[in-house]
Write a structure and sequence with these properties.
Elements (H helix, E strand, L loop, with lengths): L1 H50 L3 E5 L2 E5 L8 E7 L2 E7 L6 E3 L3 E2 L4
Antiparallel strand pairs: 1-2, 3-4, 4-5, 4-6
């Protein structure tokens, strides 16, 4: 009888934790996608500088061109996963990539 009661309490606690865990998992996925984008943009910029050639790519529907001096044009990418999104900004003058915090879709 005690074992059944303990299992019931554990089941109730697990059900209460599930929504929180799924939100956390979704945010983790979207952050990982944003970090991967940052890594790819950094590598493309470095390659352009080292090779002394213009490098071109398309990420999330946005064309990106890096020039041999490391510059590009300002760009914004919106990465969406189910109910969350994150905005990733590419600074044209410096090539710096800024990842904003994930937000729930519909949130400003």
């Amino acid at each position: 009888m005690e074992m059944v009661l303990v299992l019931a309490v554990i089941a109730i606690l697990a059900m209460m934790a599930m929504p929180s865990l799924s939100k956390s998992f979704e945010k983790t996925l979207i952050k990982e996608d944003a970090r991967q984008l940052r890594k790819e943009l950094f590598e493309m910029r470095q390659s352009s500088i080292q090779d002394g050639k213009v490098k071109w790519g398309n990420y999330y529907g946005e064309d990106v061109v890096f020039y041999p001096n490391g510059r590009t044009r300002n760009s914004r990418f919106r990465i969406v996963h189910d109910s969350y999104y994150v905005v990733v900004t590419l600074r044209g003058f410096t090539g710096r990539v800024i990842i904003n915090r994930p937000k729930r879709i519909g949130e400003n």
